[in-house]
């Protein structure tokens, strides 16, 4: 049905590496794969195998779970997008980590894969959207800081020159042309 690769960490793994929970859900226990250093696994490539046909209105959704936390959605693959490299954003461990028996194993991190309705999923690539959002916030902060240096105060209002956006944008473009690393500073 599907395979996964952890870049620089594994060979391709098929569905047999996962524990099947039911017809539509699989879990990979990270303790068996990397032990407690699961947070060092930052990316995962998931792909549909050639002989598997996923219905067009379905997706294979990928989730991560840190010990004591609920599963968090990371992204998905579909027939139109049969493979993807997903950033695994692990939540901070938390919750109640009490063991029920003295010989029980401690909770471990997990990666979950499930077949779900495509329309029910928020986005196919959560990490890419978060990176874009962080970049937009950094550009906005740059603009605010530039405008603030030219501000005047009129009662309870800040007053800026009418051409402030043009001046900021020209300065922004000039910096980007001069310094190839300038725009990289906005990427996270």
TrEMBL record:
Transmembrane portions of the chain: none
GO biological process, one term: protein import into nucleus
One Pfam family per UniProt: Hikeshi-like_N
An example Gene Ontology molecular-function term: nuclear import signal receptor activity
Limits of the Hikeshi-like N-terminal domain: 17-118
Residue intervals of the Hikeshi-like C-terminal domain: 132-184
One cellular component (GO) term of this entry: nucleus
Listed PANTHER family: HIKESHI FAMILY MEMBER (PTHR12925), PROTEIN HIKESHI (PTHR12925:SF0)
Family according to the record: Belongs to the OPI10 family.
The protein's name in its UniProt record: Hikeshi-like domain-containing protein
Organism name: Gossypium barbadense
